[in-house]
Amino acid sequence: MIEFQTTYFSAAVGLQLGARILVPESGPTGKSTLYLLHGLSDDHSIWQRRSSVERYVEPCDAVVVMPYGGRGFYTNAEHGARWGDAIGCELIAKVEDWFGVSTSPEHRHIAGLSMGGYGAFRLALSNPGVYSHAASLSGVMMIGSQPLNNPLRSPEFDEELRRIFSENPVGTNHDLLHLVTQCSATDQLPNLWMDCGTSDFLFDDNQTFFAKLQEMNIAVRYEVSDGSHDWQYWNRLLPSVLRWMGLNPAD
Predict the structure, then answer these.
(1) Cβ-proximal residues to 28 (8 Å cutoff; 6+ apart), any chain
(2) Whole-model pTM?
(3) CATH 3.30.70.120 correct for 2-244
(4) Which residues have CB under 8 Å from 240's CB, separation 6+?
(5) Are 16 and 70 in contact (CB under 8 A)?
(6) pLDDT tens per residue, range 179-206
(7) pLDDT in tens, 96-135
(8) DSSP of 153-206, one letter per residue?
C-alpha cells in the first residue's frame, strides 16, 4: 500500500483537517473506497496506530480514507460545525477528484467505531444512494434517538452534546431511527452491519437499537461476541466487516 498524509481546508467547519489515505500499489483509478471513522477521543491516525488495517486491506484493491472528524459525531451541529457536510460531502468530492476512484455507489463503503459507528450510519442514512455498505463497530447508536438526560455524564460533556444535538434530537437528522425510516422509503437503504461486545458499556444501547430495527422490518446484520470497548475487539472484527463488504481482506 502507498500511504498519503494530507491536510485540506474544510469550508463546512472552517478548519484545515487531516486525513490518512491508503492506496493500492496498482493505483487508485476506478477503485472502491472505504471511509474509516474514528471515535470521540481519537483522530485520523488511530486506525493505523492501533489496528492491523494496512495488513488487512492490502489485498482488497481499494482506497482506504481515514479522516479527522473532531468530536462532532459526524453530524451538522445545532450550534457549531457542520461535520456531517465536512466528511459526508466535501471529503468524498475531494477524494474522487484527487484520486479518480470510482464514483459508483456500489463501490463506496463506510465504517466506524464508537462515535464513528454512529457516524457511519448517520452519513449513509442521511445520504441515500451514496454508500453500498455502512458498518458500526460498538457504535453510540441511540445518542440521537432519545432526549439527552443521562445523569452520569459530566456537565461539561452534557453541554457539548446539547450544542451538537439539542436537548431532544428525536425525529431530527441526528436520530438514526428517524433517518432509517426516511432512507428506507427511498428504496436506497444501504447494507447495514452493526456489532458490539457483550462486555461493552454500549451493549444495551446496541441491543435496543437492533430491536427497534427489527420492529421496523429493517434488514441489518448484527454480530454479538465476547469483547469490550477496546482495540482488541475492533481489530478482531475488522476483517469480518471487510469480507461482508466484499473487499476480500487478509486474515
Answers:
(1) 63, 99, 100, 101
(2) 0.97
(3) no
(4) 223
(5) no
(6) 999 999 999 999 999 999 999 999 999 9
(7) 999 999 999 999 999 999 999 999 999 999 999 999 999 9
(8) S-HHHHHHHHHHH-S--TTSTT-HHHHHHHHHHTT-PPEEEEEEETTSTTHHHH
Cell numbers at 166, concatenated: 439539542
Parse the chain into domains and list their residue ranges. Answer: 2-244
Three-state DSSP at 140 gives coil
Cα–Cα distance for residue pair 184/196, rounded to 1 Å: 24
User: For cell 449513509, what's the residue?
Assistant: 124
* Buried residues in 102-131 as b, exposed as e (16+ CB within 10 A): beeeebbbbbbbbbbbbbbbbbbbbbbebb
Which residue in this structure is represented by grid cell 456537565? 155
Q: How far is CA 8 from CA 38, 94, 233, in A?
A: 18, 9, 32
